[in-house]
Target: NAD(P)-dependent dehydrogenase, short-chain alcohol dehydrogenase family
Amino acid sequence: MKSALVTGANKSIGFEVVRQLAQKGVYVYLGSRNLENGMAAVKKLKAEGLSNVEAIQLDITDDESVKNARTEIGRKMEVLDILINNAGIYGGYPQAALDSTIDQFKIAYDTNVYGVIRVTQAFIDLLKKSPEPRIVNVSSSQGSITLHSDPSYRYYDYKGAVYLSSKSAMNMYTVVLAYELRDSNFKVNAVCPGYTKTDFNGHRGPGSVENAGMRIIKYALIDKNGPTGKFFSEENNPETGEVPW
Model:
């Protein structure tokens, strides 16, 4: 049985990703900053007959929490096959380049960039023991500098200096990580789930969590011939999914 860790997974897209992975027979660690919320989420999934799910306390902005999660999972298994860095925040308002505060940037980057790095570095040793390790960094087409430079891009006028730049930074980390692991069995990709109706955006998005989850786990379960070091947004490119950085 393959194993996976999903961060920020007690609700919304992360929760749906856990559900779909569990439905496919993967043993999933449901990462939640608040353990009680995580346990409540697991209870819901077990009520659906999904017993291969376990909650783990994981605050990706806290070094000690990440270390403890790594220790706990390492006690239970020697190998981790899939890491999905899903946890993210928007960063509050305003998001104008001239009005956003340095504190806003720091808080957003601590989750969207540093949190991804913390978790990836903490679990890389377990991932390296997998015959088919997969890392999916949940991104956003909003982090594409190319798209946001194109007036024809559907979200061209939806600018936000804090959130957009944090996702751009995370995307570059994805590129470099994939490059460093290019001679291994790793597949490392950034995936945009699409503009989805969740708490994250006040339920304004038109997409469903079910479709968002499918888009993410697709790249968590790719075979040895699958892509690596790529950026995918099926919302913006329904044909191949790949979008420019």
The chain is about 40% helix and 15% strand.
